[in-house]
Design a protein that fits this description.
By secondary structure, this protein is α/β, with parallel strands linked by helices. It is built from 6 helices and 8 strands, in the order βββαβαβαβαβαβα. The strands form 2 sheets. It has a 6-stranded parallel sheet with strand order 5-4-1-6-7-8, with helices on both faces. α4 links the parallel β6 (103-106) and β7 (121-124). α1 (39-50) packs parallel to α6 (150-161). The radius of gyration is 15 Å and the shape is globular. The mean pLDDT is 95.
């Protein structure tokens, strides 16, 4: 089923792990953490930003990988190590004077529920934690899995509307 979005959306906010990644973590013998990203999703962010739709990331984990997106796309709102994502999203919405109908939130797990409840457009990748499908009303699910084109699928829908 195609995603149902609006051309009124001015901000896309996403969780990181489980959305941009498949949720896997690679730990080297030197205890360095690495994550695999899909270029389709990176291109998706580029497409969204080029359409003058702001993009933000609120992640439960602290990661230098988030700086890649901040630097590459000039994203002003990158937040790592956040446990209360709803509080941070509420602050962002107030800062930019955005209504719930102007924000899309993408998440995959229970720590995304509070943020999802603040906005009209709520999307999860296909590999979403099943609890969200029961707890979050009007949750849309992408055909793509997290880390395998979910962001790009959303971007294709948004860009096609504008």
């Amino acid at each position: 089923m195609a995603l149902q979005l609006s051309d009124e959306i001015k901000l896309v906010v996403s969780d990181f792990d489980g959305v941009f990644t498949d949720g896997s973590v690679y730990i080297s013998e030197q205890n360095e953490v690495q994550k695999k990203l899909n270029f389709k999703d990176i291109m998706g962010v580029s497409m969204i930003v080029k359409k003058s739709i702001d993009f933000a990331i609120i992640s439960g984990e602290k990661s230098n990988i988030l700086n890649y997106f901040k630097d590459k796309f000039g994203l002003a709102e990158i937040h790592g190590g956040i446990r209360q994502k709803g509080i941070v999203l509420d602050e962002i919405m107030r800062k930019y004077n955005l209504k719930p109908t102007q924000v899309l939130y993408i998440g995959d797990d229970i720590n995304d529920i509070a943020a999802m409840e603040l906005v009209k457009y709520r999307i999860a990748p296909k590999n979403v934690n099943p609890v969200l499908t029961f707890k979050v009303q009007n949750l849309q699910i992408t055909e793509a899995f997290g880390g395998d084109g979910a962001i790009r699928e959303i971007a294709d829908t948004l860009v096609g509307m504008n």
